[in-house]
Amino acid sequence: MRVLARAAAVLAATATSVLLVTGTAGATTAPEHDPVFTPAAGTASALVTKLTHSQASTRLRSSGITWSSSGNCSDRSKPNCTSFDQVNLTTIQGAQTLKSATGCALNVTGGTEVGHASGTYSHYNGYKLDFALSSCLTNYIKGTFTAIGGNQWRSGSGNIYYLESNHWDVTYYNCGGC
Prior knowledge:
- The chain is an alpha+beta fold.
- The protein has helices spanning 2-17, 53-62, 89-102, 135-144; strands at 19-22, 43-46, 50-51, 66-67, 87-88, 107-110, 128-132, 146-149, 152-154, 160-163, 167-171.
């Protein structure tokens, strides 16, 4: 029984290191503030791993995923750039999972740069990527995922693929089975 009690104490200590409590005195706050969604005081939120542009680029390149920007830049503060600064690790892993599952050429055209819609699960907060249209990608998404209306499809893992006029806007709630 003592071993189980110690194991429970270790798990409890470990669990607090992966939770973020906001709105209480002396609590750690999120690295970026979302003006649209602010958790209530004392609300626990899962801590996400953020990547630098370089870290994300290395991961994408290793999977054969390309990226481009109309401004040929990666500055997060410029809307014509494609930046991965402060992207969630699970978002990049989700793109890697998509590449592996589809076998399609993937080109990211939008990341965490300013100029996208706001919200909790936004580009700026690291949850979304835009992909260039291709018949390979479109056929895979429409043939594999569940249509949920409004030009949107939901993957088995719950990620949302939204077909906009000239790209796929993907919201990664998780890595898609990585």
